Amino acid sequence: MKSLHKMFWLLILLLTFNNTSCQNTDNTKDNPKEEPKIENKMVSFATGLTNPVSIANAGDSRLFVVDQEGYIRIVDPNGKVNDLPFLDIHDRVTFGGERGLLGLAFHPDYKTNGYFYVNYVGKGDVTHISRFKASSSNPDMADADSEVAILTQPQPFINHNGGNLCFGPDGFLYIGLGDGGSEGDPGNRAQNPKQFLGKMLRIDVNNGNPYAIPASNPFYNSKTTLGEIWALGLRNPWRFSFDRLTGDLWIGDVGQDAIEEIDFQPSGDKGGENYGWRCYEGNKIYNDSECDSKTTFTPPIYTYPHGEECSVTGGFVYRGTQSSSYYGQYFFADYCSDRIWTLHKEAGNWVKEDFGHFPGNSFTTFGEDAQGQLYIAGAKSKTIFKVLDYSTTATSANADPMGEIKVTQFPSSNKIRIETGRNNGNEIQITLSDIKGILVYKASFREANYEFDPGTLPFGTYLLNIVIDGKNFVQKLIKAGP
Questions:
Q1: What gap in Å lies between CA 436 and CA 459, rounded to an integer?
Q2: How far apart are alpha carbons 244 and 272 in whole angstroms?
């Protein structure tokens, strides 16, 4: 990945903004002296946040940050944290280790009904899924006395509580519960269809009392499996999310002693997947007693081994600025190593790319704002960082008054056409490189428009760099498979 890092640096250097950056130093065991330092990947957005474990938005300009101790705090668009918490339920939250106030989800009709839902561990180590209501007179305050219990689940141990919850594109509430804790799921609860533990639940909070089971749930009419269950075989789905564009479900499931995994469920799926725990940790057998055939399990799309890494923090598919080089890529991190990566699909294969190493943070959660911009919280640094959305469209960061450059890919051939909108006779230089930084085409011209054929190229992502009058313009090009 060293060539990728160098290429990315060369391309974004001319597109950086004057922000205080979170410095990214990436020193690997293989060759620590040659690994480049890459800055301006993220910027510090809000500081002084204690125990941040979840970030959500209510469809407006605010961010809501969950403090594990039992508070929800508001961060304004400028990164200022409100003095008073939005919600204070620390008196009913059991805080410590993996326990506490762990998740937050705003109802799709929050602007109308003011409802939001939380996941917290309370007295007696019981998980509570509860609904609260925002104040009708102060949008920055919620009524702590408005709690309505939706669902409870006793926890046999103090770890592996899961904690996340969010509304899917179908309007139903999804709840991730861990296997109940200890080590190795001693009760085999994740495989037990009569228990909520180790499952993804899907419920309808708009009907029933206090909820209804959707008729489209995979086990709705089952006599052997609880109807609320959407998926089985999860160890600790600490953070999961839906792609706001496609509706795909992404799950970061924390592993035992050896393997971390990312699970994926495409939009439109009927549910019922069994992701394998405790029979499998990642793709490897962990404890295959009382296990069905391997063909009944859904394997992860990506795994990585323990070493410096030890606990995956699931993230989001970036859907902020469409021209960003990160658009459509899934971000995830590791709590122990402070490394961040992205996943995307190329030619039918999942491709992982290094985003960077940001030591001293202990990343606990990602979050989106209402526009799809991406944020990540560091528990150790007590900081919320914002991922910078460098544009790869052919427009200059210096707001070139001569307007945008138009780049056209012809689907019926390999040809690419560049229309610069100018005809002053000055030389224009172009280079086309693959995502690893390998040059595949180079040319210069003086015409206003230029058309070229780079030849037969493998499927994948390419970066077109255009230099006009000393200014750089960058366009991401994708050659899709058949």
A1: 13
A2: 22
- What is the tens place of the pLDDT at every residue in 27-46? 333 333 333 333 568 999 99
pTM of the full predicted structure?
A: 0.77
| Pairwise CA distance, residues 205 & 165, whole Å | 13
pLDDT tens-digit profile of 41-86? 899 999 999 999 999 999 999 999 999 999 999 999 999 999 999 9
Give SS3 for 13. Answer: helix
Runs of H (alpha helix) within 92-186: 110-113
Distance CA 273, CA 198 (A): 12
Structure letter (DSSP) for residue 405: P
User: pLDDT by residue (tens digit) across 217-229?
Assistant: 999 999 999 999 9
- Return the closest-CA partner of residue 396 out of 321, 462, 468: 468
Task: State the Cα–Cα distance between residues 303 and 159, nearest whole angstrom.
Answer: 22
Q: Note the CATH number of domain 2-387.
A: 2.120.10.30
What residue spans of 361-409 are helical by DSSP H? none
What's the fold here for domain 406-479?
Immunoglobulin-like (2.60.40)
Cα–Cα separations (whole angstroms), residue 375 to 54, 262, 319, 333, 367: 10, 19, 12, 12, 5
What are the structural domain ranges in the chain?
Answer: 2-387, 406-479
